[in-house]
């Protein structure tokens, strides 16, 4: 429960939403600094040409599913 003085302080702070927004932005900027540069976009594959691994008939490591083999029978 808030005391009378705490409630009055909260009312004073929230009376100006632009000030609250500016203070919030200042806190975030001071904490995190500037925004990082965006990552470069990957090169687009030209239409009509499949990836080189597909041309050679080689599977990429991420696309091959691994399976566990059972012991030999007998």
UniProtKB/TrEMBL annotation:
This is Uncharacterized protein. It comes from Lentzea aerocolonigenes (Lechevalieria aerocolonigenes).
């Amino acid at each position: 429960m808030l005391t009378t003085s705490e409630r009055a302080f909260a009312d004073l702070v929230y009376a100006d939403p632009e000030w609250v927004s500016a203070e919030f932005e200042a806190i975030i900027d001071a904490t995190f600094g500037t925004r990082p540069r965006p990552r470069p976009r990957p090169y687009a594959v030209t239409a009509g040409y499949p990836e080189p691994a597909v041309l050679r008939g080689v599977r990429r490591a991420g696309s091959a599913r691994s399976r566990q083999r059972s012991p030999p029978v007998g």
